Amino acid sequence: MTAEATSSPTAAIGGPAEAGPSVRGRRARSRTAYPRYVAGKLGGAAVSLLAVLVTSFFLFRLIPGDPVKYMTGGRQVSAEQLANYRKEFGLDLPLWEQFTDYCAKALTGDLGTSYQFRAPVIDKITEALPNTLLLTGTSFVLFTALGVFIGTRSAWRNGGLGDRLNTGLALTLYSIPSFWLGLLLIIVFSVGIGPIPGLFPTGGMESGSGETGFAYVVDVAHHLVLPVVTLVAVEYGQTLLVTRSALLDEMGSDYLTTARAKGLRDDLVRRRHAVPNALLPTVTLIFINLGRTVAGVILVETVFSWPGLGGLFYQALSVPDLPLVQGLFFFFAAAVIVMNTLADLIYPLLDPRVGR
Question: Cα(304)–Cα(301) distance, rounded to whole angstroms?
């Protein structure tokens, strides 16, 4: 009798055998794989945020213009008064000292004081953030739902007239600059052209006529239509194309053939089997788009004079209001980084093959 047989008698009679060292090692590695994966992604996100913090300081120092002269409002002031302004905001310090002071304060949540508003940058961001979330949140829900729905339908009817029309329209709209489309919508539906009357406001978030309650909600919704249509038209195409491509990859799988062979209707095969697996890449894209939409709303808010973070960024950039520009740039970049990291952390939960 060999040593292997005598050392594990339970295996010889069909009973449970004790796992060997290699099996235990694989199990241990499997248990620690996801925590290591999470630690790596969080570490990468922290490094990215630090790089953005450094970049935001030096990048906007290249903008021409003197913020101190802007703060004087064009008035004639003495050199001593200008020097006092520079000292008040720390602009008289050497660049390296300004940088270290900026980084030290930013790590504690202090992004500085706005030159033009004379208020903490974090307060200005907090004040404008709800308006941006209203615009981007509404747009995000609509273009995600629209992209997933049409992308699923197009893939299931691949090559048909509807598929070709939907894909062509999505590619066309996705390639149009958002500011150009916004200006076009203002000309057609706000100003009015030919038989089309001006139906919507040209900009702003409210009429300012003192509406309250339900009338105020209707007024804000009326101002919200064109900015939302602009964002949805430009952004839904990417979700549609990704969903369509992922579903086309799944449609040739054996498990779908088996499901059809069992007599399941096509709509059940699509909803219960194909779409859930095809949505894995789309889930990642959804998180990425959520961060990118917040950061990419600058042009749309500027075109429609929407009082959100994008409009605030444009206003600060024209001064230049360095602390406010730096703070907003960091916030926009952080939104993208955080959403990308969340997508990376959630994806292994949906597909166990990732991060193992």
Answer: 5
